Amino acid sequence: MSRQIFRWAAMIQIGLVVLTGCHPTQPFFIQRDASMADYVAQSMNIDYADVHVESLPEATQALQPLGP
User: Fold this and answer.
1) Less Cβ crowding at N or C end of the chain, within 10 Å?
2) What pTM value is reported for the model?
3) pLDDT digits over 40-61, tens only?
């Protein structure tokens, strides 16, 4: 009897996989802008790093590591 239960469970699982498919779905956004203009505008902005900042003392005044 338990063998029949496992067989039916396996058949149901195979059927569900076949019916639903195995591909990922797109996320659903409630107020999604179709043109995606906000993302395009953000991707066109270039952020430059602030390189004129003094280094931290723990990096500049560190001792040489011990070891070979």
Assistant:
1) C
2) 0.32
3) 777 777 888 888 888 899 989 9
